[in-house]
Specification:
single chain; about 550 residues; mainly alpha; Growth Hormone, Chain: A; Alpha-Beta Plaits; 2 domains; 4 strands; disordered C terminus; transmembrane helix
Length: about 550
């Protein structure tokens, strides 16, 4: 399972716990905490099992990579599924995969057929289920709770997970030390069954679209395009990816720190992980106060510095007490950083694409974490554990400085939802949903004194239309009639044209009104809809696909 990205607001606010009054959200949220407890126990058990059967520092560090790599590989696909199919069913399928992977791992441990690569394989399979589940669950929050409660619901996801983090690793260490690895894996499998049964029982209404479902190829393309055109999302993803790459050394190398520097066992490892979780919860509770006093960019820099101090302390200390304090500081920086980048993605994403933007975010940051696990494991094995932790500290300071290039921007309100109210213009041809390509032309009459203002508005209009589906957007000025300007763009099919207009928000419509005020004609700007037809030779037309109409 991935870290749950969230915005942590003031826990004293009256609305913070409002989502828990919603029975469906409350049931799934509580079940998720049980599952998270099992996952944290399993993380301790897998890491310690690998540390005991393998002498390779790299193999120990790759445990973190195997649990994060699936999100890098599958998240974009999972996000498209979450936005185009029943999110509840996608969540259920992901949970089923987690149960199957955990049960198989428990079985091979019981039979004694364990090897380093087998452990990594089952860890990878379980993480595949999490990669499928997480984008659908994050996107479902807005379907289950009222819009005004979405920030509070996301807060609860983050605080809940990090609360469990304070006891899960320690409990895992106790179970492993007292009852053995098999007991830990068995308990984990049982905890995975709890949310599976809850999702099966709970149902919630989802606003359905009157348009046909997008193809997976188009859905993925639209998600990638929207993300690429959002400077807020790109900055958040860039900082999150770099932070994950640099900071994961703390968790990936912690089993080696306990074994080699501190001379401890699984109980010590679990206790130190609990210290990390305690710092995370404290930061979650205090985050609302921090956000009122400091900008998000300042919080991100402080988070990087806190994690750098943690990594450097682990490299230099031989005291479990000092390591626990350092890890509490690192946990506080960890949750504050992920909260900042996570809320940036959430608030910058409208409902129609939120599953895909979250999945792209998860894919890249988990890719960074997986790469970081490999990098720091390699450095530890080739040079020394101390070198790896000191290198991580230096890299985190560079991530703090990267705010010059990728600053996190402040946003206090979420991206408005689409109006989804559009009356399709009448056409003389009998168009089918996949008829196309469609060419849209809008002609304006603009006085010379208003040209600069018009161009400024059209730049905004190009950005808005392109991110919701317009292709090849251009603006032309008539050389013989300089007052005449023509806006042109294309959509692959008639359905894509309808979908584009369904995705426009009230803010987008207000921009149209501002453009209209600059129009000098007595009548409204004239819009022309056309369908492209091929003009190639019959021989080439036999090879090239024909537009559908």
């Amino acid at each position: 399972m991935s870290r749950v990205a969230g915005s942590v607001e003031d826990l004293a606010a009256p609305t913070t716990f409002a989502p828990l009054l919603q029975p469906t959200f409350r049931s799934i949220w509580l079940a998720t905490q049980v599952s998270s407890l099992g996952w944290l126990m399993q993380t301790v058990a897998i890491s310690w099992l690998m540390a005991t059967i393998s002498t390779s520092d790299l193999m120990v560090a790759l445990v973190q990579a195997s649990s994060n790599l699936p999100a890098f590989i599958l998240s974009v696909f999972a996000g498209a599924l979450a936005d185009n199919f029943s999110r509840r069913r996608v969540m259920f399928a992901g949970r089923c995969l987690m149960v199957i992977g955990s049960a198989m791992l428990t079985a091979v441990v019981a039979l004694g057929f364990v090897s380093p690569w087998m452990i990594l394989g089952f860890s990878f399979l379980i993480a595949c289920g999490g990669a499928l589940h997480d984008p659908a669950w994050q996107a479902s929050v807005g379907d289950i709770v009222d819009r005004r409660d979405v920030p509070a619901a996301v807060t609860l996801l983050s605080v809940g997970f990090n609360t469990v983090r304070t006891v899960g690793p320690a409990l895992g260490g106790i179970v492993v030390a007292s009852f053995g690895l098999l007991a830990a894996f068995t308990v984990t499998t049982l905890t995975y069954l709890v949310p599976l049964g809850t999702i099966w029982r709970c149902k919630w209404k989802v606003r359905s679209s009157p348009l046909p479902r997008e193809s997976m190829r188009t859905a993925i393309y639209d998600g990638l395009r929207f993300t690429a055109m959002s400077s807020e999302i790109k900055a958040a993803i860039a900082r999150g990816t770099l932070f994950g790459l640099a900071s994961i050394a703390i968790l990936a190398l912690l089993p080696l720190v306990v074994r080699d520097h501190l001379g401890g066992g699984p109980l010590a490892y679990g206790t130190l992980m609990a210290g990390f979780g305690t710092g995370a919860v404290f930061a979650g509770i205090s985050n609302g106060t921090f956000r009122r006093s400091l900008s998000q960019e300042r919080l991100m820099k402080l988070s990087c510095i806190a994690c750098a101090a943690c990594s450097l302390s682990l490299a230099l200390t031989s005291s479990i007490a000092v390591a626990a304090i350092a890890l509490a500081l690192g946990g506080a920086g960890w949750v504050t950083a992920w909260s900042g980048v996570g809320v940036s993605v959430q608030l910058a994403s409208p409902r129609w694409v939120v599953g895909r933007t979250i999945s792209i975010y998860y894919a890249l940051i988990d890719g960074g974490i997986a790469a970081g696990s490999w990098v720091w494991g390699t450095v530890s094995q080739s040079h020394s554990l101390t070198w790896a932790l000191e290198g991580s500290a230096g890299a985190l300071l560079l991530v703090a400085a990267a705010g010059v290039l990728f600053p996190l921007r402040e946003r206090h309100e979420s991206e408005p939802d689409p109006l989804e109210a559009f009356d399709a213009p009448a056409v003389a041809l009998n168009l089918k949903p996949r008829s196309g390509p469609i060419v849209v032309k809008v002609e304006y009459l603009i006085a010379e004194k208003n040209v600069e203002a018009f161009l400024d508005l059209m730049r905004q209009r190009r950005h808005i239309h392109s991110r919701v589906g317009a292709r090849n957007w251009t603006l032309q000025r008539n050389l013989q009639k300089p007052m005449q300007w023509t806006e042109t763009f294309r959509t692959p099919t008639w359905t894509d044209y309808l979908r584009l207009n369904h995705r426009l928000t009230e803010v987008d419509k207000e921009l149209d009104e501002r453009v209209l005020k600059l129009h000098a004609g007595e009548e409204a700007p004239q819009m022309t809809l056309s369908i492209e037809r091929p003009t190639s030779s019959p021989r080439k037309r036999a090879i090239l696909p024909l537009p559908r109409h």
